[in-house]
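REVIEWER CHECKLIST
Item 1: Sequence provided? yes
Item 2: Single chain? yes
Item 3: Sequence as submitted:
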Amino acid sequence: MRVLHIAYQQLRRYGKTRVSWAQKLTFGLIKNDHYTQVFSDRDVAAFEAPLGIRDLGKKTANKRLLEMVDAVEPDLVIAGHCDMITNDTLAEIKKRHPNCAIAHCNNDPLFVPSNVERIKHRAEVADAIFISTGRRELTMFEGIGARVYHMPNPVEASVECMDNSQRTDLPIDLLFCSNSTNFTSRLEMIGRFKDSLANEMNFKTYGSFGEEPVWGRDYDRALANTKMGLNLNRQEGHYWYSSARMAQLAGNGILQFTHDDLRFDELLPPESAVYFKAEDDLLAKIREFHHDDAKRQLWAKNARDFFHTEMNSKLNAQYILEASLQIPFSHNYAWARDINLDGSMK
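Item 4: Structure as written out by the authors:
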């Protein structure tokens, strides 16, 4: 198949990039032998704009996208987080190329009201929408113009290439990286943990409490030295919703702690992620695994094996392509066992 993937490619960061779920999707498409081109809306807008002022290049970016679609003639256009691209432009793509399907992939949480509206807006012109919250919480998007699917945050073997479950010489006992304070109060708990654990373990909180955030290779080095990580969302309680942090930790063999309300026990194998219900419960389990390195290694290995086998970029990309083009599923996707090909729930 021929695929055009519209997503921010971080070109102007010149290598000092964040881990990108969009890039993982592109890698997965290519590994599945699909001819794949990318269009970075924000970068094109900046490159085309007077004085490099990105907002002034929005109109031209939409024009360039139409030129690229005409040149590539894709079977599928995947529109990720590309707010520079208008629905009118996506509608024009369908008008010019009626056999081309359009999918929207959204990796942001539903507790942000503007993101819910963004998804509804894209559903007006997309054939299929893929959202990183579990399917049973996506009923609000049914019947508004597009088929609705859940998609996971996958691992990519070239990105999550470490296996800390095999190591005992890791200097960072516990890790939490974040510099986001919107829609969350999680740092209050993290602050209490730093005080409680100060004399027991090396707890790094890059991006908070005076520790500088880490990106690119600095983030890779932080992960490479870590035994355990906190997978804390800005808000908890949405079924199967997690930031991309879950895949980054699990994929590198780092034991992760995640909230029980997310119900990942219904997706992940036993003895892989450590679930907690409340602050005291989490603190006790952190101490338990800190003092039982063999148990930490076993659970981290189980999670890593599952993610690399059943939640990888190749499977994720093939699932999105098959659902978008209504090709019968070629795999019993672990995250989609309750989803029919047409997006409805079983």
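Item 5: Key structural point noted by reviewer: Residues 106 and 131 are 5 Å apart (CA to CA).
Item 6: Recommendation: ____
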